[in-house]
Amino acid sequence: MPITFGAVGDIISVCLLVKDLVEALDKARGSKAEYQSAIRELWILDRALLEIDLLTRTHGNGATPELRSLCETAKKAATRCRGLVSAFLERVKRYKSTFDESERPNPLTNVTMIIRWHLGEKDALEQFRVEIAGTSSSLQMLLATASVTLLEINRKKINDKLDSAVRSKHSSDTANAAVLTDICHRIDMANDGINAGNSLLGKVSDALRLDWLRQLGSELKELMRRAIAMNFATYHAVISIQKALPSRLERGLIEEPFVLEDPIGRIAPVHLQFVTSWDAFDAVLEIRFRSLQGHRKLRQKKYVIQENAT
Predict the structure, then answer these.
(1) For residue 6, what are the CA distances in angstroms to 77, 100, 147, 221?
(2) Rg of the Cα trace of the chain?
(3) What would the pLDDT profile of 193-210 be if each residue is shown by its tens digit?
(4) pTM surpassing 0.70?
(5) Residue 81: which of 35, 152, 137, 27 has the closest Cα?
(6) Cα distance between residue 81 and residue 78, in whole Å
(7) Sequence-separated contacts (24+) of 218-224 with Cβ below 8 Å
């Protein structure tokens, strides 16, 4: 079944939980190696969840059974992440009054909670870091599988378009060959008619010795020659027009989307037939960066677009 909008919202809510937990760990002991390691794993998880969110938004309608299965797996992974992050965040919140500078706890209680944090939560933090690292690895493998699946789908589409273009070209060549054969046949018939007419006129001219009949034969021959020349000119004009028109393959390549990679590393295809103006393009970018870093600069149009080749 396709991933619903609610599932995409769940992924975003997990990302927000991750950011809350990172902030809580920073307030606890930001300089300790084990805390920094846990924070790095959380940022890796956050990046993977953002990629999963992009995958479900782009291909959540289930273009193929493989993509539907991958999106369903992504939904389950996001639910599992929610449970891990929520549980550990609740444990950290018990020490909020100890590490929050705005609070004024009892000094004895404060010292007791700090000792309890260092002695009792160190193993739990390491276990949480290991679980988060495993979940991030699973999500990254899921994203790699999705990328391979999308590449295979795109390859199949391109092959189908190429096959269609080859069939169209073969059909066009066959039709052109038939037209040429018909024209050659008509030319042969015209030559036979001209030869027969010339022969008849020669006989009549020899019999009657009339100059005007000879002149009539010459004019008739010239008239037939002009008619044949006009037929050839018409045929060449039609062939030129056909060559000037773009083929199905060229139209298919024009309709291919270009790939846009934003500053936070998200990649998305952009179809030119849906982007009719700069305002439309700005609106698409604003929606993609809503509630994300850089949204205000994007609204102020403080950004540049650079081609990857440059």
Answers:
(1) 15, 34, 23, 83
(2) 38
(3) 888 888 887 776 666 665
(4) no
(5) 137
(6) 5
(7) 221/194, 221/197, 224/190, 224/193, 224/194
